[in-house]
Amino acid sequence: MSEFWLISAPGDKENLQALERMHTVTSKSNLSYNTKFTIPDFKVGTLDSLVGLSDELGKLDAFAESLIKRMAQSVVEVMEDAKGKVQENLLANGADLTSFVTHFEWDMAKYPAKQPLVSVVDTLAKQLAQIETDLKSRTAAYNTLKTNLENLEKKSMGNLFTRTLSDIVSKDDFVLDSEYLITLLVIVPKPSYSQWQKTYESLSDMVVPRSTKLIAEDNEGGLFTVTLFRKVIDDFKTKAKENKFTVREFYYDENEVKREREEMTRLLSDKKQQYGPLLRWLKVNFSEAFIAWIHIKALRVFVESVLRYGLPVNFQAVLLQPHKKSSTKRLREVLNSVFRHLDQVAAASILDASVEIPGLQLSNQDYFPYVYFHIDLSLFD
Fold first, then answer.
1. pLDDT for 307-366, tens place per residue?
2. Contact 370, 7 (CB under 8 A)
3. Strands (E), the chain
4. CB 128, CB 292: distance < 8 Å
5. Which residues contact 146 (CB under 8 A, 6 or more apart)?
6. d(CA 174, CA 183)
7. From CA 331, how far away is CA 29, in angstroms rounded?
């Protein structure tokens, strides 16, 4: 499973023994894979400042998770033709996400532990805010380009009634620069091809004999040319409509045809040029944002452990990876049993949901006798 539980318990003798019992039970029952999660000794400051940081870190945690989810989705969207290789680009410091989490080490160079906690959190917040700003601008530019290209491609993919015709007609299909003559394009249903051939010359006066030619087809009909005198255009259109032939409004403009083709070529070229740099940026900054997120988790464990267990700082953090979804309920029961002494009242209510304790409202999802945080990597699968 790509799910982790990050917990902490006091580091005194009794609780270290509790941790050993937890390791023994979870190992024998094949419930989870457990590893020590090392967190540096930070400057604690005042308890009041920790309470403020607790709230701020909660918001920053949610923001970081949202940001990396958006970045992962951007990688999927950019790699539209190679979605099978998306996971190769969702790495943290060159490693797959599970390996990075299970082998986590605090980055002292980037986030010095000797700085006040407020400064460390501020550094993380500014880093993530900058990544989000860059993500918005870079993806907006790419998505605008992609949308323009898709719109242009759609124009060439519709039926003969709606699609652009500039890519299927040529200069030779038209009588051009004539004061008297004009070539029209007419859509004829497939069952009416024979009728068209027999009647088009007589639909109006002044239709040039043998001037029709089939130049394109779709599932429903064909696109025919017909040349006639300009003075009878309206009459021809009326008679064609009566016979269920549709005159498609199109006048050949060589410059416009050239412009559309050049625009398609330019957009394809621009998209190709932006693809590589954008994917590289996403890959690098997904890694940076993910690493920052796990550092935030570590900070939350530290702050909540100090607030829960008090001073001096003395706790042990452990990372648990449940082996399968079906075992998480049993794993939770084991943890609540092993650490119930940390909060007898809360543990009793968790272990026996039928017990009602006046004035105490607890949810199995958001309160435990020990410090607990959840890391779900399935968000990036």
1. 999 989 999 999 999 998 888 889 998 998 899 888 765 445 444 544 343 333 334 445
2. yes
3. 3-10, 32-36, 91-92, 95-96, 181-189, 213-217, 221-229, 246-248, 315-322, 371-376
4. yes
5. 271
6. 5
7. 9
The per-residue pLDDT for range 66-88, each reduced to its tens digit, is 999 999 999 999 988 776 788 88
Residue 306: CB atoms within 10 Å: 24
In degrees rounded to 5, what are phi and psi of residue 92? -125, 110
| Confidence tier at 153 by pLDDT (50, 70, 90) | confident
What predicted TM-score, i.e. pTM, was given to this entire model? 0.77
d(CA 346, CA 349): 5
For residue 118, the tally of other CB atoms under 10 A from its CB is 14
SS3 content of the chain, % helix, strand, coil (to 5): 55, 15, 30
In angstroms, rounded to a whole number, what is the distance separating the alpha carbons of residues 374 and 65?
Answer: 11
**Proportion of the chain above pLDDT 90, given as a percent:** 64
| Amino acid in the structure at residue 43 | K
Stated length of the chain: 381
Q: State the DSSP string of 238-249.
A: HHHHHTT-EEE-
Bridge partners, 376 (sequence order): 3
